[in-house]
Protein 1
Amino acid sequence: MAVKAPATNRWLQLVAGVVCMVAAANIQYSWTLFVPEIVSAHGWTRASVQVAFTVFVVVQTWLTPIEGYFIDKYGPRVMVLVGGFFTGLSWVMNSYAGSLTALYVAAAVGGIGVGCVYATCVNAALKWFPDRRGLAVGLTAAGYGSGTVLTILPIAAMIKSSGYQDTFFTFGLVQGAVIMLAAGFLRAPGKSEVTFSSTVAQSRRDYTLGEALRTPVFYVMLTMFVLTVSGGLMAVAQLGVIAEDLGVKHIDVNLYFFTMAALPFALMLDRILNGFSRPFFGWISDHIGREKTMFFAFAMEGIGIVALGTFGTNPWAFVILSGVVFLAWGEVYSLFSATAADTFGSKHIGKIYGMLYTAKGFAALLVPMANLLMEATGSWSTVLYTVAAMDLTAAFGALFVLRPMLARHHRLNAEAAAATAARQVTA
């Protein structure tokens, strides 16, 4: 019978993974601060600069299945060391980029680096904590989702005082070094160091990638992942642009004890809520089930996006509603990864979730399209209402499509296991 890992051992693994994720987060979540400065310095169009964001996300996500293979072969320590080097190198390259091509190449390098870090740390959390899978992967993903809380203001201040090039260079060196140092603590769990959940249905069979790809439930999860990740990803890349177009970017929000412009205030709040949502909804899913949690979270995101499109010209509403959107969006990275491991086992989860995670790459293709649609219609409302409809579709799909499919999946697995046991007894 599997036994629990010593708490100090596996929690140390979790802490090291969170540190790595925090250091890797700036490439995605601080990008919006650099876009106006890059456009102003070089005269490039906003849409062309945002292509770099798409390149980063596509490379980060679409290489994840390959990275999953190397995680299983070489272990977490080597992968995170490589990831830390490329993560730091990306921003150093950005500091020297004098052409769009150079910007895109740097984005691709960053995608490789962050992909290695993200895939490895999530993989480790899923393997070390099957009994608390939602919470553990939620905490790990929270490091990535809210890792920029402490750096948003320093980065903004340094961009203002020293320029965006020096900011890229300095923070690139720091974040790369932190990841590489934390990598030294990582290792994979042994078979006797894990235990399963007693409240969430979890497969005792370890599916290979090929077997997982032959199940209908994989493609339902992939479709839902694309639908839900699109809205939040668009907001991450475009929030500064949306604030500017809605006319609230530089309007102060007065909290009586301090005053801050709407955009940086929203960015800070969004990072906090984005990070909080991942362990919070993951913890809830450990107790009430993944599909029910998905329904509540995805519906909240859809309603929040509709409200943002309707009331976002008010600075207070912009801050609060963008926070609601990020609160309801961040959990996709804990819920889908935990559901994948519950469904297909943890032995090959690096490759399987890596393939599922490519949904983020497909969604990233919609980021420049959203900008073009906004410019064509003159309003963000069309874009926001479209992604809200996608979120609500996924919310109802979680209850009425995914839930019965997973119930059947686990039932068939249990019947197959019982039949195998019966044959062994009679043999």
Protein 2
Amino acid sequence: MHTIPLFISGAEIAFIMFILVMVFGADKIPDIARGLGKGMKAIRNASNDIKSEIQKSAEKQGIDTDFTKDVRGEIDKVKEDIDEITGSVRRKP
């Protein structure tokens, strides 16, 4: 799961929650949260279905879909190059 950094403080979150309770009422907030959760789950399932269909289609056409190993290898090469360059500059603990 990926987290999105929020640049708001706890006091601002509390204020937003207060406004939500004032606008919708305490009895409606669980229903709204449940609806948002169901909507997010539906979007996630739809995107997973689309990904699997694209992958099946690519495999059917003979296209290699396992490109993550190539990307990981290139990232490792770049890391090694950076370590070689900064090795003499880096402070030793």
Protein 3
Amino acid sequence: MSPSSETSTHAHGYISDKDKYLKRMGRIEGQARGISKMIDEEKYCIDILTQISALTSALQVVALGLLDDHLKHCVLDAAKLGGDDAAAKIKEASDAISRLVRS
């Protein structure tokens, strides 16, 4: 089974903080809509860029939180079991870190 096709029987590491993530994503959606409105209303470029920077930071906080949860739960659990699943989870986490660093 590929890491992205896990069944719902496995509880993801973020599940205990799901409501926190959903609230934060709701605020992020509002920020994105606000930026669209600023562009539509032809606001000052620097003000829009400032809001984009804030939005980017908010997304990074969510991404780092999810990564931390993934490492503490999914990767740690797989590492305890060992074998191919452990190696796959570690590679998956490394790939995710690489994507975050590039972004």
Protein 4
Amino acid sequence: MANTPQSKKRARQSEKRFVINKARRSRIRTFLRKVEEAIASGDQEAATAALRVAQPELMRGVTKGVFHKNTASRKVSRLASRVKALGQA
């Protein structure tokens, strides 16, 4: 358990950050799920619109330290290629 004042403060800060990051991660996953659902329905316009909304949200998660930059880029790239494939099918 934390003993020094500094370690106690760090523990408090860590709890706060955990709650904030958890909410942010959940919000991003919701946006990603909306894209997935639009892809599953086969509606390219809806999928494109959902991806356009989800992309900045995902990148915002990168700047806030929730996701790694490459992870977010990989997710966006894979979703974009799947949305693009809808138009060709």
